[in-house]
Specification:
Order of helices and strands: HHEEEEEHEEEEEEEEEEEEEEEE
Shape: globular
Strand content: 35-45%
CATH class of the largest domain: Mainly Beta
Helix content: 10-25%
Distance between the termini: 54 Å
Radius of gyration: 21 Å
Structural class: mainly beta
CATH architecture of the largest domain: 5 Propeller
CATH superfamily of the largest domain: Glycosyl hydrolase domain, family 43
Strand order of the largest sheet: 3-6-7-8-9
Number of helices: 3
């Protein structure tokens, strides 16, 4: 058989087999009802309810009483702020990787405005006095752009994550590819860039790195980052790496003493069993224990992005582990 004939036969076989393959892979009703989470924010409690925000059109919202069963809410933005398209040409409302924190009687929601594969990006801020959508005061107010990047900038201004230091300062880690993970200080009153302390600090680098988060424990600051590629379902290679420092500004060293700024990073969570490509870690502390939340691609759900929720433990050397 010639190469051309062999190719034609292969195509015909694929076409004829497709209906059967689709039928075999069709999700069950229960799988269809399970929410899809990509780039989940830190869970935040209001009253007896938890909220999580995640990547989606206008930013996806979900609510839960037990951190297990989630109900879909309305998107944060039904109408996008005008500056999105003015600043980021090609932006059509699909907003990425939000994070939320409560400060000064407001909930501050940070999110990424970008387009795939480019570093012409911005991190925006919205605020609301409440997360209770039944409260008449519930309303998201656009607070504008926190930080931006373009093709002349060495970093990519996406994937924000907030960290409130016990000393009262407020920080944001962010970054994706380019020169890696960055840190800036915010004004705790406004949630925007600190008016005096404007330095952008590089904390970590790898040829494929993004989705940072910070956690403090027993005098150490821990920086979690993602290596690998996301968004390819079961072919995703995401894994979470970690380093720690005595200062929030770094340097962050892994368990072998290598600096994350020059490519170091100890493995924290990787693909295992049906949990493929875990990433975008965030943390809550309740009753003296810590839990880590992240998304992964669930092999049992044909690669659907799914919310992970696991207890965090500490080794005798003060390194976190699942």
């Amino acid at each position: 058989m010639s190469d051309l004939s062999r190719a034609a036969a292969s195509i015909l076989f694929t076409i004829l087999s497709l209906p059967c393959a689709l039928a075999a892979a069709s999700p069950t009703p229960q799988q269809q009802r399970t929410p899809r989470f990509h780039d989940p924010s830190t869970p935040v409690r209001h009253g007896d309810t938890w909220s999580i925000f995640s990547t989606g059109n206008g930013i996806a919202t979900r609510y839960s009483q037990d951190l297990k069963t989630w109900t879909e809410g309305e998107p944060v933005f039904k109408e996008l702020p005008a500056w999105h398209r003015e600043m980021i040409p090609g932006q059509k409302g699909h907003l990425w990787a939000p994070d939320v924190i409560q400060r000064g009687g407001r909930y501050l929601l940070y999110y990424s405005v970008s387009t795939w594969g480019k570093n012409t990006s911005a991190i925006g801020l919205a605020s609301s006095p409440t997360l209770d959508f039944k409260d008449p005061a519930y309303r998201w107010k656009d607070e504008g752009c926190v930080i931006r990047s373009d093709d002349r900038t060495p970093y990519n201004a996406i994937d924000p994550q907030l960290f409130a230091d016990p000393d009262g300062s407020l920080w944001m880690v962010f970054g994706s590819f380019w020169t890696g993970i960055q840190l800036i200080e915010l004004d705790p009153k406004t949630g925007l860039r600190h008016p005096q302390r404007q330095k952008v600090r590089q904390l970590a680098w790898h040829e494929s790195i993004e989705a940072p988060s910070l956690l403090k424990h027993r005098g150490y600051y821990y920086l979690f980052v993602n290596w690998g590629i996301c968004c390819k379902g079961l072919a995703s290679s995401y894994e979470i790496r970690i380093g720690r420092s005595r200062k929030v500004t770094g340097p962050y060293l892994d368990a072998a003493g290598s600096d994350l700024a020059t490519g170091g990073g100890s493995i924290f969570l990787k693909s295992e069993g049906d949990r493929i490509g875990p990433g975008h870690a965030s943390f809550i502390e309740e009753a003296g224990s810590t839990r880590v939340f992240f998304h992964y691609y669930d092999r049992k759900r044909f690669g659907a992005p799914t919310l992970g929720n696991l207890p965090l433990h500490w080794t005798k050397d003060d390194w976190p582990e699942i």
